[in-house]
Amino acid sequence: MARPTPPTTATELMQRVDAIAGLTLGEVAAQYQFTTPQNLLRDKGWIGQLIEYALGADGGSKPEPDFSHLSIELKTLPISYSGKPLETTYVSVTPLKNLQNTVWEESVIYKKLRHVLWLPILSERDLAPVDRIVGSGFLWQPNPNQMARLKQDWEELTEMICLGKIEQINGRFGQVVQLRPKAANSKALTEAIGPNGHLIQTLPRGYYLKTHFTGEILAQQFGL
DNA sequence: TCGTGATCATTC
DNA sequence: GAATGATCACGA
Hints:
- Helices cover about 30% and strands about 20% of the residues.
- The protein is an alpha+beta fold.
- The strands form three sheets. Strands 1, 3, 4 and 5 form a four-stranded mixed beta sheet that branches.
- The mean pLDDT is about 95.
């Protein structure tokens, strides 16, 4: 099957989402000549890339929404048999310098989370990738309460980064958003603000949504 | 090196 | 069992 073109409307996008709901990843992969890996040890982003392709995402590796024309971000969400998220959800890298004057409404994470197409994937560990099942995708926008919690966490984390306290931040900070390493390995370094205001070398970080928060989104959608 | 896609694996 | 810190692949 030829490479899908980007959907022109949200309606068209959702029709494609509905068309793959209930299929196994093996079935989706076969439609697009993707080779399904035996495990995800060396292909951790394989599911996301397959789904992006199948739905016609055009964002590429740019820091833009997957469906640039629609301003919609696609996120696959691994879930257990009971419908609970199995992993935290990566959102974007974390700027570590030049963020004086940045406000929530202009942050990368805010822009990415404004419109999200969640696509749950039944990804229990005892299921081989080929047998994992695509769930029912749905469009989501944070409600005022969720948006307020996202903003609160972001402001706390951003203030610490500005004050040179990046090394004090670990995954325990934040109620719904956390900061964790996001790198090829522990030797990859980038610049950040240090304790004395000077630039230091540190591990690149990323914003992740905690499983409790994504679980809440699923519960809100499916009434779990 | 950074940003995309995330999950792995050890620790708690 | 859940969560944190570490890691894998790829394109520009």
